[in-house]
Amino acid sequence: MVTAGTELRIINPALTIDWLTANSTGKGVQVAVIDSGIDASHPALRGKVKRACVVHDNGEGRIVCEEIPGEESYDSFGHGSGVAGIISDIARDVELVSVKMLGENNTGSGAALIAGLRWALDQKIKLINMSLATSKKKFVPDLMELCDQAYVQDAILVVSKRNFGDLGYPAMFSSVISVDAEAFENKFGITHYPKSMIEYGARGENVEVVQLNGSYGLSSGTSFAAPHVTGIVALLLGIFPEIGTYQVKSILDSFAGCR
Stretch 178-199: mean pLDDT, rounded? Predict the structure, then answer.
């Protein structure tokens, strides 16, 4: 069994990926995807987007989060749909929450990122995927404060590092679960990097992902590695809904082969 608490220990060796996938579908778990939106009309995602909000400038210089019906959720670029498709492929019964803050060029402002994350935390959403990062240090104080808030309120943030250049924020924060891309064939493969600021590697090369207009394609990158971990965390939460980031990291470590 797994006991949830400040000193979580895995005391039953039966808690493996195989056991987890046989006993959980992520049912009852909400996952916020902070990204370019989710195409709720795609066959792979239809009926899975339960809530959605669009982060935008209200024309008066203020960033606002406007909630729309989940079935009206849309994606300007396709990136968020690809991420959401991976999560729901691993944990088929999760409830997706689209937090759209990236636009048609798959870019967005740091202020929009902060507003989207704050909205998700205010909604008490337990699991949040952020397949994006910023390298602008002016946003670090607000991002760090929100990530620390998430840790304290037992919201779990799974984030990707940048593909090029520096690691990016919030991937560099210890309060999140940070992910790099690996060439796993197995979608449940995890590597643990015990001496790195980026703690985990997951499948992120030549991944079949959902694309716009009902299509599919192959993509690579850290953006598509992070949702593999998010999907596994959703399976865990489907059985152990009270665990937090510290406990989840302990379990992921036990699943992973260290490097």
Answer: 95
Give the CATH number, domain containing residue 199: 3.40.50.200
Is 50 exceeded by the pLDDT of residue 7?
no
Are 224 and 215 in contact by the 8 Å Cβ rule? The answer is: no
3-state secondary structure 117-158: HHHHHHCCCCEEEECCCECCHHHHHHHHHHHHHHHHCCCEEE
Domain assignment present for residue 98? The answer is yes
Q: How many domains does one find in the chain?
A: 1
Query: Tokens for 13?
Result: 């060796």
Helix crossing, 140-152 with 110-122: angle to 10°?
20
Residue of 230, 223, 195 lying closest to 89 (CA atoms): 230
Average pLDDT in the 71-80 region? Answer: 96
Q: What are the Cα distances from residue 16, in Å, to 10, 21, 44, 52, 244?
A: 10, 9, 27, 33, 18
Domain that holds residue 167: 25-254
Q: Is residue 127 part of a domain?
A: yes
Q: pTM score, two decimals?
A: 0.93
Residue 17 belongs to some domain of the structure? no
Asked if the structure places residue 87 within a domain, the reply is yes
- Spatial distance between the Cα atoms of 62 and 198, rounded to a whole number of angstroms: 33
Q: What's the pLDDT score for residue 13?
A: 59
Give the model confidence (pLDDT) of 138-169 as tens digits. Answer: 999 999 999 999 999 999 999 999 998 889 99
